[in-house]
Amino acid sequence: MILGMTFYQIMWFFIIYSFLGWIVEVVFQAGNAGKIVNRGFLNGPVCPIYGVGMVTILAALNLATGAEAAQVSKVNAGLIFVGATVLASVIELVAGWILFKLFHVRWWDYTDDPFNIGGYVCPIFSLGWGLGAVLVIRVVHPVIYKLVEKMPVNAGIILAYTFIAIYLIDIILTVLTLIGINKRLKELDGLNKSMRIVSDNLSEVIGEGSLATTKIITESATKARVKFDENIKNTSLKISESQIKRIQIKEELHKFMNGRKRFEINRMVKAFPNLKESKKISLIMEVLEEYKNKKKKSE
Length: 299
Known about the structure:
The chain is mainly alpha-helical.
């Protein structure tokens, strides 16, 4: 037993609640945006953060009260609410921070909501997680527990490991895609910084050229003009190099974004609108738009 649950139960609770969480997200998005979108981080119909969250809450309730998976629905509703609110907030904060550090984009953002914590956690949603947990543990969990217990053990083990294996493959493919994107975003970010430096240098060149011109009385007009022209020429070359580098990165993105990766990226952008607001991802959005335009023309 692991905090009131067997490993078999933990696997199935994680699988089932990940799937139910995905349904909740799809329904919420459909009601909020008026369209059906796969809101999962992964390609499959799962939201692992819900599975992790519910298993953690069940384990914490066992640790606090000694209630095992079969009796957890009888735990005081107030305790469930407070515990779930705190744990869900911590999980959301940690997961959001880790995803941001790994991929440099926000998968959800509460920045515009009052009393948010770093944009990762919002008190209103945290209270919603608490209320939702009370409902799930009191009403839904007993049904899921019975379903898991009635399942033939041998078949259940095979199915559970199969689903976990599929999830792992999905995670690996998704992460590899994001790592590939992130690598190119870093190149683009470095390019943007170099272009800003070039822009600053250009400002200095123009300023110096203007000063040189005002000193034409004391200096040779020809020398001042030549120096100014050379500086402008050198700066123009740097800008051209940056533009060429941008085109090269764009071509690499076209090669990198094959059918599967393009599908994954397009799905993520639809599922997490905050990605569109990232300045770093603008070039990827440009590439996706080109694919759409080509498709329309071919039709």
